[in-house]
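pasting for ref
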Amino acid sequence: MKRHVEWLIICMIALLLILPLGCNGDTSSEGEKLYEQAKQQYEQANYTQAAELFQEAREELLAEGKDTEAADCRVQLQNVEIITMSYPYSEEDVRELFAQHFPDATQSEIDAWIADCEPERRDIDGQSHYTDEVGMNLLYRNQDLFQTNPQLVEKYREGYQTLMEVINRTPPDESWQPYSNPITYLGTSALDVPREELPQSGLLQLWFSIPILTGPQPSVRVLSILPDDYVKDPPIFDSDMGMVYMEVPLEELEDDLQIEIQFTFDHYEQRFEFGPDNVGEYDTGSDFYKVYTASRGNTEITPEISETAHQVVGDETNPYLAAKKLYDYVVGNVYYGHLPHLAMWPRGEPESVYVHEQRVGDCGAQCIYFTALCRAVGIPCRTTGGWQLIAGDFASHMWAEFYLPNYGWIPADTSVAQIPDYIPDLSEEENKEFKDFLFGSQDHYRCVVQTDMDLPLIPPASEMVSIPMVNQYPEALCDTMEGVPGLVLSEYFSIHVQVAE
């Protein structure tokens, strides 16, 4: 018995000596160590060092046979490329830009403008960097400066006059019918990529956007897809996102990659005749209500956003009147400005939070914020869109839609509503008439390709695509490409529209 006890004690002592070695010893491979170091540098915004470490880690991980981790490094390298590309200007660059475009500006004015460009600034490698939209956003935030540019003012005036023709048009006799005056469009999207821009082997996955069937867009036809050999699934236009999915085996591609898709669609004006007392009750227990009042993705509802929404709405319980208050609040308090979407969610922060904190946003960001405000007070809402055609061709655009029982989805376009703010000499009545129309009514210069923000591609992508929130231009994945596939291909993509005969 004594001998057994002694043997047990010896074994326990040996185990205690061994355990610390197993617990504290770092068994990570060289590639894994480099990967962890790269992630630390990335979190600290030291992107140059992070990129070097991710590249070293990837090479080591491939040599070690850790393909999954190596693929993660490739994705992180693409993230670094997107962030640094989105903020290309140093502070010195911005000062030179302002001095060039405003030669009469004083140094104190330029200093003030630089301080006002906080929404366009990000620390990269310990230095302030700015987006390439910093100059235009300065004009958007300063309407007096904007109006010193006659070309911009004329462009806005043309858009205003085009929409005023719709606003002033006599509504149809059937006031109960919200859809009228359709236009049939013929669209052509084309991709023409030189062969040398693509790897010699590997699989190139492509997702092309096409129109979908909605209330104001009841007819969609895909006329042709050339070549059709790459098409893996039938075109999808009866879902929440319009899609043509293709796969290109690059080892079989000898010449330039040339793809063309032609489609037609009808789009109607929308004019809703509202009676606030006719709005029904929400089924708050339904899946529909829960989905469109939820906080998710870019439409994050923080306590601060919720507090603002309730302050704006006050005691108003009618969802139509409450949504109008929120619409007026966004139109009057959020400046128009371009955001670095590629570098934001999920690489940075949700757009609703960004707009709430910075009080600036372009069409999509503003409508995401409006959507978050509506959802915060229990009004189902979504950010929808695709393209607008006010100037006669496709231009990316998003707007919001909130849901009213007994009516359906109601359009609200906060950014287009701000057009009159940049045109001098318009009366308050003209400004108000324009803004009021864009709440509850909409022109027929639209093409809807998705009903909501942050929807998954069809079929879902296995990795993060270049901008995983909207589907306005082709998205791509290819594990043999070093750059960001969607951005590489975007230089060779074109899309045009004409009114069909």
